[in-house]
Each structure stands twice: as structure tokens, then as C-alpha cells.
Amino acid sequence: MTHKVSIWRAAQLLGLSRGILQQQVRDGTLVLEDGWVSTETLQRLYPNAQLEASGMLERVTQIRDEAFGKRVRERLLPSQEVLAQRLFTQSQELADLRRHVQRYHALVIELQQQIRQQSQCSSDAVQWQELEQVASQGLAKVLATESVGMLEVMDDMLKIMTAQVTVRPSGHEFSVEGHANLLQAGLHAGLKLNYGCGNGSCGMCKVRVIEGAVAPTQHADYVLSEAEKAQGYTLMCCHTAASSTLTLELLEAHGPQDIAQQLIVTTVRAVTELAPHTWLLHLQTPRTHRLRFLAGQSVQLGAAVPGVGDVSGVYALASCPCDDRNLLFFITRNPADAFTTALFERQLHHGSSLTVTGPDGEFVLAEGHRPLVFAACDEGFGAIKSLIEYALSLDASPSLSLFWLATRSDGHFYSNQCRAWSEALDPFEFELVTHPDAALGAWQIAQAMRADLFDIDCDFYLCGPAIFVQTLHDELRASGVAAAQIFAQVI
């Protein structure tokens, strides 16, 4: 029996980006059957695929070797109740398949008997005997035990360890691992979900279960009506997937216009010096009031400083929306800015209260499967970092490239993170450029892009001062890049 999986699952099994497989679908290398791909096709295309490199086989081995470790139980394995329910679901599927095969078996046996009777009454007995032999051979072939490949074994293991969730009507997919609830898993996968408190109080993450089963993970104060319960509605923040597959109906944000303005009082968790003129500001929201935003957007930060008064400023979020409680900002020293002055003079420190108002901005990632090219100048890397982390969570692009221009000696204040991405992720590469003139540095980056990437259909994201963005934009347009593939943010 042919084993079929979705593109999403195929990418997981092979350790590839979904964007790479989608590109193969578009060019005809990989053929889908009703949206599914057979493991036979995958093994034919990737005969030397190293499952160990995908991380899935390593994860199974780790769970086997450390099955009783608390960290493994909590982070890699669902609760015992959820595991038992997923196993029960698979046993039901197996029982259904057995009944299906038994019905076909009985049908073929009955057919054989009728053929035998017809052969006894017919003058042309030879043809009837040949027909009976075809039926017998066909039945034996169907009932024969087929060899099972490693991809099929891994897929069955993943069905128990991780649940696959499909979202309607968008068709997006994500996996639920460990003790994560549906909301946490969806956000980590880069979905633009609607939610509020995250603890079962507001009801904003309400969704309808179309197929599959869910299990509660925590108590919810929000009470669903009887009509909502009858229609299958549940709260994502308080439930996880109890079946190996789950289909949910929900509305996702399509862009910044779908993200409501918020006002949140946050706490400074840390202020870290990255370079003499650039510090990392780490804010944390209350558990019951998290910031919903899109990667690449900005917010206004405000604080009341004793002896100074109210100070504020608009800064790009340098963190991924998948972690909505921990907000990161790269703050550059600016003597003309009262907020940065208060920060660098340590009037804002661990434990201080800051208000966050927003989010704002249209500099967000467009949907698609093209390779992504990012270009940043100095602290413009903040918004770019948010976009890169979000793109990595989506796992939808065949490759990601970063060009980072520094106009001062300490401008590459987060280069270690770039190296970590490059070492851990095959589809990520970066180039650090230093030039005191932003315009000439942008021209230099454009030449590097043209040499390496001009023949590839890419989406370009530019962030930095006006002269940097304009110069690079003009160079890309002159090289033939379509305007619709260039996204820019001036800081």
C-alpha cells in the first residue's frame, strides 16, 4: 500500500525547507497526487537522504535513550493522556483498514466461487480458470507483506510524538510538540493567529475543530456557549491536539491592518551592552497581556523618568512574534533623543516599567516561496532580525541571504547571531560589509547581490537610513528586479 504524506510532512522527514519542495513541484520534478506525495517518490528523488541530518531520527533516539528524563518528558513528549489518546486514534485507523481489507478479501473469495461455478457450466472452461487464477494471484499480492521504508517508520513515529494541524481556509500547517498548546505551536510556526490573554480568559483564540480531537491543557475562565460547544469550538490557548491529525477552522491576519493597536505596561528584564553605542533592551509583558504584532513592525516605548519627566521613542521590534512576551530592541545612543539618553545613563534599568504602544508599520514579510534577501544598515538590523526569525519559523523559503552594512566600527553588534544561523542552517548565508558612507556601502552590496543572486527570482527587504535604502532600491531596479519584489523601511 502506497504511503502518502503532505509537503509539510515530507519536508520534516527529509530535513528540507518546504520552499525547496514547493519549487520542485512548480518545475515538475516532484509530482503531487491530490496534494499528497508518496514516500516512494521521495525516496526516488532523495535516495541518499540522511535522516539523521533532518533531526527527526536524532529526536526519536534521544527520546528512547532519555525516556524518563524530566526535560524530555516536558519538552519533547506530550502528556501521558495525550499520548494514550493518539495511540488509541492510530489503533482505530488500523482497525478500520483491517475491516476494509477483510471486506475486499470476502468479495474476492465470493468472486472466485462464482467463477468456479461458471467454469463448471461453461464450454470454455479454460478462460474461466485463467480468470480465477488472476483473481487468486491478485488477492495474494494484496495480502502479501510489503517492505516498509524508513520514511514510513518515521512518519508513524511522528504521528504519535507530534500532531499535524491543518488550518482552514488558509491551508497552513503546523506541528504540536511536547506540552505545547495549539496557540503556542501555531505562533512558533509563524501563523498570524488571533489571540489576547493567552490563558483562557478572553476567548479571542476561539477556533472550530473540523476534524480530529483536542485535549485540555489548563483551566479556562472563558465559558463557551452550548451552541459553540455543539459546533466544535474550543480555545487554542487551553487545548492541545489529542489526535495525530487535526483540522481547525480559524481566521488569520492577512496584514498589519488586521492587528489591533495595544497599550501594554511591560517590565525591563535586562539591558545588555552589545557595543559601546548599541544596547539590547529586553522587555517582558504580563502573562495575561501579550503583544500581538507582525515581524518587522515597530512600537512606541514610553517611560516616566524621575527628574526628567516622560520620555518616549519609536523603535523596531528585534524579536519574533512567536515569542510574544519577550520583546527585544536594539537601542543606539543618540544625544538628541531623551529616551536613549535615559537608557544609556541607566535611569531605565532592570525592573523599570515601560509602556508599549502599537504595533505600527507595513514592513512585513509577504507570503510566498521565493528566496529571501535581506539588507540592513547599522541598527536597521533590528527589523531585519525579526523578519529573518519569522521566515525561519515559517520554513517556506528555499534560502535566506543577509547583507549587513556597518558605517561605524561597532556596527556589526550582533554578528555572532549571524554566524550561529549560518552554521546551524544550510539555507542561510550572510555577508558583513563595512563602509563609512551609507550610499557607497549600499552600492557595494548591490554589486555583491548582482554577482550572487541576480539570476534568481528573489524578494528583497531593505532597512536603514534613507540614502542607504534609496541607493540600494535604485540599483536593484536598474538590474531588472520588479518593484513588487522590493520592500523597504527607512529608519
Topology at a glance:
Elements: E1 4-5, H1 7-14, H2 18-26, E2 37-38, H3 39-45, H4 51-54, H5 56-65, H6 70-75, H7 80-121, H8 125-143, H9 150-161, E3 163-168, E4 173-176, H10 182-188, E5 206-211, E6 214-216, H11 226-230, E7 233-235, E8 239-241, E9 245-249, E10 262-275, E11 278-284, E12 298-305, E13 309-316, E14 326-332, H12 338-344, E15 353-360, E16 372-377, H13 381-394, E17 400-406, H14 415-424, E18 428-434, H15 438-453, E19 459-464, H16 466-478, E20 486-490
Parallel strand pairs: 3-9, 16-17, 16-19, 17-18, 19-20
Antiparallel strand pairs: 1-2, 3-4, 5-7, 5-9, 6-8, 10-11, 10-15, 11-14, 12-13, 12-15
Helix pairs in contact: 7-8, 15-16
Structural write-up:
- The protein has 491 residues and is an alpha/beta fold.
- Helix content is 38%, strand content 24%.
- The chain has helices spanning 7-14, 18-26, 39-45, 51-54, 56-65, 70-75, 80-121, 125-143, 150-161, 182-188, 226-230, 338-344, 381-394, 415-424, 438-453, 466-478; strands at 4-5, 37-38, 163-168, 173-176, 206-211, 214-216, 233-235, 239-241, 245-249, 262-275, 278-284, 298-305, 309-316, 326-332, 353-360, 372-377, 400-406, 428-434, 459-464, 486-490.
- Strands 13-12-15-10-11-14 form a six-stranded antiparallel sheet.
- α16 links the parallel β19 (459-464) and β20 (486-490).
- α7 runs antiparallel to α8 (125-143) and α15 (438-453) packs parallel to α16 (466-478).
- The protein is elongated, with a radius of gyration of 28 Å.
- Mean pLDDT is 83; it is low at 51-74.
